[in-house]
């Protein structure tokens, strides 16, 4: 029986081994035991560390707090000691400052006196330097060393420029007077030499043609004189009143004129002024002197044509020979002789126009003639000098003056209304321009021609703001024509097939077509762009509103013809 049980156990063991691999379980158990031992060792180490830290924490805290309190008391005591020391030092310092106050006041007073004496010394040094420069100029001038005198004058001018921002008004006044004095003296001396040189070539070319070339010695002399004259050019703030105009003279009474034009910057260079001098003298004699037949405000074409002749006769010499001399004298600068000479001629025109204003401004017919001649002068001026120079030097500065422009606009409106009355009252007003056709009435063609001429008159104005006022005048005339046409139609609506009705319809259609064509012109496109910047502007063209009114009238007339057909 026992033997049977043993066999049964062995068989069971074998069955378990075959099914569950008991040997593998034994190996796994050994490994787990080793890991468990390692964990136990780590736990023992951690327990030892915790015990050690617990002992340190459990030391008496009161002893550490006592140490901190003792250190704090020592620090407070040290602060009190320092505070007492600071108060003691402060008291000593206050006492020292109080005792030294009178001495400080004396030292401060002495310092101020020293500074004032230094300023006096500097002032006297500058004054002495200026006097020395003036003496040098005088010495060079008396010894006929004009070039050296001019160079020294330039140095004196630099000193004035450096001191200009200072508050030494008396010193500046003294230097300014010295500059003006030597400017006049040297300008007269160099100017005489320059004028003698240009007279040797028969300048101005009134009775003889301009030379094709000049000799080398004269070229060198002119080059030296031009350089000296440009060095003598006064700064703008030192230019005496009246020096800007080449027509100015001691007898001029510009302040009594009803209108003043501001001087143009920069001033005309001295060499160009001296070239203009003999011409301006002739101009004054012929066109400004009293009891001269040529001084006639009713004939502005006389002096305008003379100036055109002068600019034509001298332009070639200025743009070639004289310009090349100036370029060699000023290798690092640009001075356009034609431009400044043309500007001097325009200033002659402006001065003459201002002198004649008491007559021309209060007579509409004389003023209208003056405007016509000025516009014609500008056209020929542009042909002579080119658009670039003519755009910068022209008569429109005078015509754009508010008072002159208001007068011009008033005269244009007055004569435009009279012209419209004359056109519509003509017995041939409603006859066709072409007798063989029945298209455009003569009154429509005449009005369009008149408006086209007005466009050319104001088209050269430099400012769109001024051109826009003339555009308003044109639009007003076209609308006035529409209103008068409606008045004429009162008696014609009953006869829509009559000749008068057809002529009016042709006029309306012709005006619409003309305005549509003008809307594409550069002048009116630019005016539309200018007006587009205004708050009440709209897209389209400047003629849209008036064209719409004419189209409405055209549609009504066509409908009337259809109804009565």
How would you portray this structure in words?
With about 575 residues, the chain is an all-alpha fold. The chain is built from 18 helices and no strands. The protein has helices spanning about 1-20, 20-55, 60-140, 145-165, 170-200, 215-230, 270-285, 300-330, 335-360, 365-385, 385-390, 395-400, 400-425, 440-460, 465-490, 500-520, 520-530, 545-565. The longest helix has about 80 residues, at about 60-140.
Radius of gyration: 52 Å
Helix content: over 70%
Tell me the fraction of residues in β-strands, as a range.
under 5%
Number of distinct beta strands: 0
Shape: flat
Count up the helices. 18
Low-confidence stretches: 1-9, 19-26, 249-255
> How confident is the prediction overall: mean pLDDT?
83
What class would the helix/strand composition place it in? mainly alpha
Write the element-wise H/E pattern from the N-terminal end onward.
HHHHHHHHHHHHHHHHHH
Spatial gap, N to C terminus: 150 Å
Largest sheet, described in full?
Answer: none
Care to give the gist of this entry?
This protein is mostly helical and 565 residues long.
Secondary structure layout plus pairing:
Blueprint: H1 2-20, H2 22-57, H3 62-142, H4 146-163, H5 169-199, H6 216-231, H7 270-287, H8 300-329, H9 337-360, H10 364-385, H11 387-392, H12 396-399, H13 402-425, H14 442-458, H15 464-489, H16 499-518, H17 522-532, H18 544-563
Helix pairs in contact: 3-4, 3-5, 4-5, 5-6, 6-8, 7-9, 8-9, 8-10, 9-10, 10-13, 13-14, 13-15, 14-15, 14-16, 15-16, 15-17, 16-18
